[in-house]
Amino acid sequence: MGLKWLVTGGCGFIGSNLIGQLTAEGGHDIRVIDNLSHGTREQLAAVCTFEEIPATETGPLQGCQLMVADICDASAVMRAARGVDVVVHLAANAGVALSVANPLRDCEINILGTLNCLEASRANDVGRFVFASSSAPVGEVEPPINEQSVPRPLSPYGASKLAGEAYCSAYAGSFGLQTVALRFSNVYGPGSGKKSSVVARLIRKAMAGEPMEIYGDGAQTRDFIYIADLLDAIKLAATTQGLRGELFQIATSHETSVSELLARLLPILQQAGIKPGEVIHDQPRTGDVRRSFADTTRARERMNWQPAVGLDQGLEQTVAWFVEAGKSRVA
Length: 331
Prior knowledge:
Largest sheet: 8 strands, parallel
Low-confidence stretches: none
Distance between the termini: 40 Å
Order of helices and strands: EHEHEEHEHHEHEEHEEEHEEHEHH
Strand order of the largest sheet: 3-4-2-1-5-6-7-12
CATH class: Alpha Beta
Radius of gyration: 19 Å
Helix content: 40-55%
Strand content: 15-25%
Structural class: alpha/beta
CATH architecture: 3-Layer(aba) Sandwich
Mean pLDDT: 95
CATH topology: Rossmann fold
Number of strands: 14
C-alpha cells in the first residue's frame, strides 16, 4: 500500500535516488522540500515527473510535488508536512569541511533545521520520522562503531548530527513520535555526480585527466556503502513496525583504506576506457577520523536489513553511470 512521503533535500543524490525507487514502485505520493543549494530540479526530473508548488500554500498531496524552500523556514516546513505519513529528513549542511569553515551555519541547518522538521512532524501527526545521521557523531573510537559507542565528535558536523539524534530521541520520549535515526557510512553510487565524497571525487578527477588527490597518507579507513543498499535501509526504517526512538548503523561492516579503495578503482576506470592521472597526497583534513567502520547487527536484527552489493560491483556500476552521464553532457 502506498504512503505519502515528505523528503527533505529530495533533489540531492540520496533523495533523488529514493524518489526514483518510490516512483518505480508506484502508489506513493511524494512531496520534496529543497532549497536547491546542492540538488537541482534536473536531478529530480531525471527520476520522476513533478509539479512545483509554492512554499506559501500547500494543497492535497498527489503525485510528486517540489516545494523550493529552506528547512530553516519553520512555517514552510510546517506546511510541507501536512497530510504526510512519513518524513525522510535528508537535507543537511553535509560534510566535515563545510562545518569547520562555518560552524554557526552548520548549527543553524543541522540542528535548528532538524528541530523544525521534528516539530512539523509532531504537529501534523506524521507516522514515522527517519533522520539521516552519520558516523561522524562517534568521532575517533576503536572500530567497529556500534550504537553503544560513546559519541565524541571531532567536527562541528559530527556535533550537529549528534544533536539531531538526541532531538529524535527526545521527540520519541516526550511526544511519542516514531523516530528512527540512521547513521549512514560513506555512500556512493549512480547519481553522485556532484558529491564531494571520495569515490565521486576520484572518478571525476580521473575522467577530467586531473591528479587524483588523497588527503593524508591514504591509510585512513572508511566503510563504503552502495546507494541501493542504503535506500533499502531507509525504506525499512520508514515501514518496519514497532520502531520508535531507534538508532541504527547503516554500513557494510567492512573496513577499507582510501589507498585500497583507489587500488580497486583504478582497474575499473581503465576497463571503462578512462586513463587515470597521477595520485597526489594533500594534508589531512581537520576533523576527519583515522579509522571508521560499523557493526550493523542491530539493523539486521530489528529491521531485517543487510547490505547486498560488494565494493567492486558497486564501483563498476558507479563508474558506468559517470561514463554515461558524461556522454549525455557531450551530446
